[in-house]
Amino acid sequence: MSTWNPNGQSLIQLVNVLVDSLSPSHERRSNAMEVLESFKFQPEFLNYLCYILVEAENDTQLCRNLAPIDLQNCRAAAGMYLKNSILQDSKEYNLDYVKHNIIQGLFSPISLISNITGIVITTLFSTYYRQNRSDCNGIQMISQLLELASQGNEASIKALSKIMEDNAQFFQLEWSNSIKPMEFLVNNLLSLMTYEGSAVIRAEAIKCINTIIPLQAQSFVVRADEFLSNLFGLAQHDEDRLVRIQLCISLVNLLEFRPDKLLDHLNGIVQFVLHIMNTVTDESLTLEAGEFLLAFASNSHIPENVIKPFINDIIPLLLSKMVYNEEDVMIFEASNENDADLEDKDEDIRPVSAKLSKKRDDGNLDDDEDEDDGDVDTQWNLRKCSAATLDVLTSILPRDVLSAAFPFLREHLSANQWFIREATILALGAMAEGGMKYFTEQLPTLIPFLVEELKDEWAPVRTITCWALARFAPWILQDNTQFLIPVIEPIMNALMDKKKSVQEAAISSVAVFIETCDSEIVETLLYNELLAKFNQCFQFYQKKNLIILYDAVGRLAEKCEFDETAMELILPHLIGKWTSLADNDKELWPLLECLSYIAASLGEKFLPMAPDVYSRAWRILCQCVELEEASQSNPNIEVPEKDFMITSLDLIDGLVQGLGSNSQELLFPKGNTSMFHVMLICLRDSLHEVRQSCFALLGDIAYFFQPQLIATHLVDFLRYISNEILHNDDNEAAPSLNNAIWSLGLISEKIDLAEYIIDLSRIVLDAFTDTTKVIQTSIMENLAVTIGRMAHFHPEIFTSGAFATDSNWSRWCEHAANLSDPEEKAAAYGGFLKIMNLTDTSIPMSSSTIHKFIQGISRDVEIIPFLDDLRAFLMSQSSTVQNLKLSEEEIFFLQQMS
Ligand SMILES: *[C@@H]1O[C@H](CO)[C@@H](O)[C@H](O)[C@H]1NC(C)=O
Ligand SMILES: *[C@@H]1O[C@H](CO)[C@@H](O)[C@H](O)[C@H]1NC(C)=O
Ligand SMILES: *[C@@H]1O[C@H](CO)[C@@H](O)[C@H](O)[C@H]1NC(C)=O
Ligand SMILES: *[C@@H]1O[C@H](CO)[C@@H](O)[C@H](O)[C@H]1NC(C)=O
Ligand SMILES: *[C@@H]1O[C@H](CO)[C@@H](O)[C@H](O)[C@H]1NC(C)=O
Ligand SMILES: *[C@@H]1O[C@H](CO)[C@@H](O)[C@H](O)[C@H]1NC(C)=O
Ligand SMILES: *[C@@H]1O[C@H](CO)[C@@H](O)[C@H](O)[C@H]1NC(C)=O
Question: Signal peptide position in this chain (predicted)?
């Protein structure tokens, strides 16, 4: 215990301010806030806050001055203030008093106070102890928490589980006196998980262990069997829902990280989980149990024959859990009437965010196909989890799943209750992908049936049917195109459904068909009709579905070149909307995005619109940049959301892609390079999506426009590119890095980088040859292309030093081989051969590298431009080439050469 004592007067003063800070009067509150801010600079401020939180109940002066409820609220406020101050600037204060006394707050009988104390303790660990592990108070505090928990103090184990959630990995390190807390944590938690006196303590102890399992810490691994045996004991006897929730989570964790440990016990575990799902109604628990089934089905370590025996038990259960629950059914039944004319309220519109997956980042192709676009609820729940499980199970054991499911489905497809029909259609959609081959016989009767359901009187049934039919799109488009028109026409009609939720599902479904179709089929069969329908939709839709419509229009534009008809039918709506929206309306984002696809698709036909569209996008971009700059010195300026910058950059880029060199005069009128100033500011932005879009624009400018233009700001751009390569190591931000590397390639192909080439090549090579971290494939591929492009003017810099080793050539060949864009691939290999042509032949290339080279260059590369270099290279390596075991394709390729 620390000997610090508060000054009575100061204490009362602070308490009064805290009471004011909770006052209903706005004025008193904001005055109080100001005073509190000024107190922050007092060195003992945190001591006072801690004292009020923890010891107020024994302070006679305070108890006399305040009513119990006021005192309690004031303590809570002090606690939250304490937490925030530690979070913001713990370094400014001496924390001794807090560290020694805070734990007493856990004894408070008032749960609000003990809870807030827990939050403060958690914050101490996340900010202070995590860095100052040698401070022996850290370990002491952990021991105290464990000790208290073992005496039945629930607040302390809750605090501990919060601490572990944020910091578990740090407990594997050494703290004071070389102690690794993980060992005694595991030891104590194993016994706490069976603590008889309190289910909360058992549940929280398991929750703590759940943060340890993924770390695979040695101190846990050696005790894993003990943990399992405790777990199974609880599974048999403990009916508490909190305990069971944590139990299910443990099982999911173990399955992911130590499936070997569970293999012998799977039968019992699956039975346990099924039992919960069959008998419990509480969805927070059944969802965790459902998660186990999903993990069980998805785990690649679990052999099919282990899953197979459970199919007959699992499938009916999953099907039953896919039915909307009573509450949802009531909501749907109360809201089935048509609402197409009802205006959308702004708050109903989900925050739209600009699509950020565009451009040169081939790495992230995860087209997040929403499992259930048809659902009103956007949250993950048991229904969706069950559908996902059914989907996965069908893909591994299609025959068994279908034969288990079909009797139910057949019976339920024409059930009287709409929610049974609905769930059945959901199930069919979920099984579509995995069961496609086995469905084939049923589908010719099933599809017309589903199409009929698009007319169901119940909106949720129509909605799910739109979704389910889209799931059959690959089947229809591969071998069963006779179904295309019979299916897509009714879906197109559903675009005009009188229920907005159905419109939404229909438009998403149409978008899937557009994505899945070959462009030829879209052009010949669907294009005109889609345009006509979209035209109608533009007149019919309310705000929210319009946003989704923009997306579908954008996809169509991406798929096939827009023509005069599109200009007549679609553009007026977009331009009309575009003119009616203010520059700061968020609805502009999807519209800008859509226009950028259309501009790219219409190409020169967009020319007449281009000046207006461009000048607006440019204006928005300039406004954002100006406000952003101004806000640096004046924090009161409200900065517009970054999506305005991103989407206007993307639209400008769309114009450049569509109009090519024709847009140069637009962006750089009479050679005015203001655009570059703005771009340079965007490249400084801390948000990687802004940089991502700006680097994409930079690359296209380098590609399409006169090289003299970029040359005026070359040094600056190269500096930002270097910075990006050197300092962006955030996985999330990889697209921005990719675009930076890509644009560097295009620039160095157009402009002789002369004196900068040495530094830049070093940066690129350092990134490329770094074997100390795992670098995303897309980044490595972009680096490989950029090395090739840099060699266009300067092959010589790659002929000695880091790149001139067999292992790096081999690495290069591995990544270049996988390039998908033929133009990039050709540029890459062309450059590589220039390097090889100049490289001293005394550096040997291994036969495996030569083989990789031949593998890569024999597929999808236009070799004419560098045929001489290629011949010379193959000649120089001919003795090795002769001894390679080549595939027929590769032999054919080499024969062509000679
Ligand atoms: C308050 O007083 C009680 C009774 O003397 C004592 O048990 C408790 O530890 C005190 N609380 C604090 C936070 O000092
Ligand atoms: C405090 O209570 C909230 C709400 O019940 C809970 O979410 C949180 O985990 C608790 N925090 C601690 C540290 O006990
Ligand atoms: C805690 O760690 C920080 C950063 O390592 C250091 O600056 C500070 O002096 C340490 N504080 C104490 C009390 O050890
Ligand atoms: C270049 O264009 C910007 C606006 O886009 C304008 O403010 C600036 O004065 C122009 N500079 C020159 C030299 O014309
Ligand atoms: C590439 O070369 C560097 C420098 O010679 C070397 O350290 C590195 O290990 C090589 N990279 C690979 C992938 O072999
Ligand atoms: C190239 O693609 C193949 C096949 O998809 C894959 O196995 C290989 O790992 C890829 N190589 C690299 C370097 O990513
Ligand atoms: C380099 O290429 C030229 C033709 O482009 C060829 O004549 C010469 O032999 C090549 N040199 C080497 C070392 O491959």
Answer: none
- Shortest CA distance to 652 belongs to which of 693, 685, 591, 623? 693
Q: What was the pLDDT predicted at 2? A: 59
Pocket lining: 162 vs ligand 2, CB cutoff 6 Å: yes
Structural domain span for residue 797: 752-898
Identify the nearest ligand to the CA of 92 by its number: 3
User: Of 454, 474, 456, 475, which is closest to residue 466 (Cα–Cα)?
Assistant: 454
Domains: count for the chain:
3
pTM of the model: 0.76
Q: Which of 88, 106, 132 is the last residue of a domain?
A: 132
Q: Which of 109, 114, 95, 85 is nearest to 14 (CA)?
A: 85
Question: Considering only CA atoms, which residue is closest to atom 11 of ligand 3?
Answer: 132
Count how many Cα atoms sit within 13 Å of the Cα of residue 96 in the half-sphere of its side chain: 8
Sequence-ordered strand ranges (E) for 103-148: none
pLDDT tens readout for residues 333-379? 998 988 888 888 766 665 444 443 333 343 333 333 333 333 445 68
Question: CB within 8 A of 504, min separation 6: which ones?
Answer: 373, 463, 544, 545, 548
837 lines ligand 7 (CB under 6 A): yes
The DSSP line for 453-480 is HTT-SSHHHHHHHHHHHHHTHHHHHHH-
Closest atom of ligand 4 relative to the 618 alpha carbon: 5
The answer to the question of residue 72 being in a domain is yes
Per-residue pLDDT tens digits for 482-509: 999 999 999 999 999 999 999 999 999 9
Q: Which ligand is nearest to the CA of 767?
A: 5
pLDDT for the residue 406: 92
